[in-house]
Give the backbone structure.
Amino acid sequence: MNIILLGHLEIEQLYYDPQDNKIVCISSGGPAERILWKKNNQELFIVDQSYKFSQTIDTNGRYKNTLKFIYKGEDDSGNYTCEVRNKLDQTSSVINITGEHPLFFYAGSTS
């Protein structure tokens, strides 16, 4: 019998990587059962061909969630939210992307 312990979730980093044209959200605590990406409070879906989603786990057990822009343009400006959930906890963090070559900042985490 496998026992999985659910713990407090935390978003450690949220940043834009201009070289690979992607937003990266690194979370810990989990396991994270669900990752949501939102743009201006509207959920982004995998069927949207403007983005590609991926998740990996590093050697420290942190989740690296990625939202990659397939075609980056002016209309991609906005507030992007990374939301991480499990049965016991939920947390999110927001990053503002502006312009074709976005400026970015780490906006912190909200639980």
Remarks:
- The first strand starts at residue 10 and ends at 17.
